[in-house]
């Protein structure tokens, strides 16, 4: 029996040694695994970088003009990005619901399909709603690039016209404050303005001031209709 145990131990040791030998006889397979890991590393890094980039985009960041225009074209909309944003903000400022089907609501066309989840028009909605509710007043107008005075002025006038349309659809019987009534009247005056009255050389600074006024006027109307008097007091 002791001899059998000794023989068994030797056999077990030989099996372990053979196992070690077997594992050590395949450096090529180890190299292949390492090579595959190294080959996949750039892909993993690119994936991580894209996730980091996506995380850096705030939910309050408006999508770009060209992105909104492309998404609108795919949906068959003839409106410009400024008109779409103005109508959307008017709808939200008047107390309209934050719905992914907002183009059908804002453009009063129930046959319009909802934007795809996460596309530029959907992000325009989520960012606009977040900006309007931002207590730091981070609301912005989606307009053509700065430096293009005529195009930007025309975009702002169109934005105001669309805002009035969206606001009228959602405000219903809500009562505005005196400041809100004045702000709405001023936006209506801008909606009636013409690009022909704009001086491309001397009106750039004035245009910036008007944009700032419109921005605050919209926040005031949103406070009147959607946020309540407590939020409105923060605007004064």
From TrEMBL:
InterPro entries: YgfB-like (IPR011978), YgfB-like_sf (IPR036255). Residues 1-20 have a biased composition (Low complexity). GO terms for cellular component: cytosol. Residues 1-38 are annotated as: Disordered. SUPFAM superfamilies: YgfB-like (SSF101327). Pfam families: UPF0149 (PF03695). It comes from Thermomonas aquatica. This is UPF0149 family protein. The lineage of its organism: Bacteria, Pseudomonadati, Pseudomonadota, Gammaproteobacteria, Lysobacterales. It comes from the Bacteria. NCBIfam families: PRK04758.1. Gene3D superfamilies: YgfB uncharacterised protein family UPF0149, PF03695.
């Amino acid at each position: 029996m002791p001899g059998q145990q000794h023989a068994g131990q030797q056999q077990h040791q030989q099996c372990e040694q053979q196992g070690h030998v077997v594992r050590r006889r395949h450096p090529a397979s180890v190299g292949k695994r390492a090579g595959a890991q190294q080959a996949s590393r750039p892909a993993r890094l690119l994936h991580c970088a894209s996730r980091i980039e996506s995380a850096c985009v705030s939910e309050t960041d408006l999508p770009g003009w060209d992105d909104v225009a492309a998404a609108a074209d795919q949906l068959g909309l003839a409106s410009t990005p400024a008109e779409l944003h103005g109508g959307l903000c008017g709808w939200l400022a008047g107390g309209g619901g934050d719905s992914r089907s907002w183009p059908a609501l804002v453009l009063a066309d129930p046959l319009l399909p909802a934007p795809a989840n996460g596309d530029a028009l959907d992000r325009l909605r989520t960012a606009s709603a977040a900006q309007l509710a931002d207590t730091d007043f981070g609301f912005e107008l989606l307009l053509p690039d700065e430096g293009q005075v005529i195009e930007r002025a025309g975009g702002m006038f169109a934005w105001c016209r669309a805002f009035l349309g969206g606001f009228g659809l959602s405000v219903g019987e809500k009562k505005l404050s005196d400041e809100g009534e004045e702000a709405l009247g001023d936006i209506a005056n801008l909606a009636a303005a013409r690009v022909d009255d704009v001086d491309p050389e001397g009106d750039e600074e004035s245009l910036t001031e008007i944009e700032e006024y419109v921005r605050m006027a919209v926040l005031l109307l949103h406070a009147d209709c959607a946020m309540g008097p407590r939020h409105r007091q923060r605007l004064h």
